[in-house]
Design a protein that fits this description.
CATH class of the largest domain: Mainly Beta
Order of helices and strands: EEEEEHEEEEEEE
Number of helices: 1
Helix content: under 10%
Structural class: mainly beta
Oligomer: single chain
Strand order of the largest sheet: 1-2-5-4-3-6
Strand content: over 45%
């Protein structure tokens, strides 16, 4: 499985027992959606390796306690500590309305209510304090903060996001 065909679910943060159980810190607001999985992909370097689950249970809020097949000792559990855990993109719950996953809107066109067509989203920068749309406008990079008040409509059918930004924001880049 390729990493670009998957989404990041969480990270194996600690061992739970001497029988190889581990705790996965889930990167989700709805951990209960993931308590009955059959398998996950564990990241080893650039590779994703399938791991099958014997049993799992929710643990302290957004954590999942897991017993993997073929991981039955502390030493075997040590080998997967601090590894990322992934699932195929098709397992992501569908979002509707103006909610979206970052990867979902790459390639969408941004249209501003005042400015008109801005350009195409090429990346979402989520390293800043406020996530940003990185937009390519004929070779010029434009950054628009992903603020709920700015996003007016997500049109999945036409691959378009309609925004209304403060006067002059887009002009700063052109």
């Amino acid at each position: 499985m390729r990493k670009e065909d998957c989404f990041y679910l969480g990270k194996i943060v600690t061992k739970y027992s001497f029988k190889g159980e581990v705790v996965i810190k889930l990167d989700t607001d709805e951990p209960e959606l993931y308590k009955n999985m059959e398998s996950v992909y564990v990241e080893f370097g650039a590779n994703l390796v399938p791991f099958f689950i014997d049993k799992s249970s929710l643990h302290k809020g957004n954590q999942l306690r897991v017993q993997f097949e073929d991981v039955y000792s502390e030493e075997e559990a040590d080998s997967i500590l601090k590894c990322g855990v992934y699932l195929p993109l098709e397992m992501l719950p569908k979002l509707e309305g103006d909610k979206f996953y970052f990867h979902e809107v790459i390639g969408f066109t941004v249209v501003d209510a005042n400015f008109g067509e801005v350009g195409e989203i090429v990346h979402i920068n989520d390293k800043a304090a406020q996530p940003l749309f990185e937009i390519d406008r004929n070779g010029t990079e434009i950054f628009i903060p992903m603020i709920d008040d700015f996003i007016k409509k997500v049109d999945r059918e036409n691959k378009e996001i309609q925004v209304e930004t403060p006067e002059g924001l887009i002009a700063l880049y052109i």
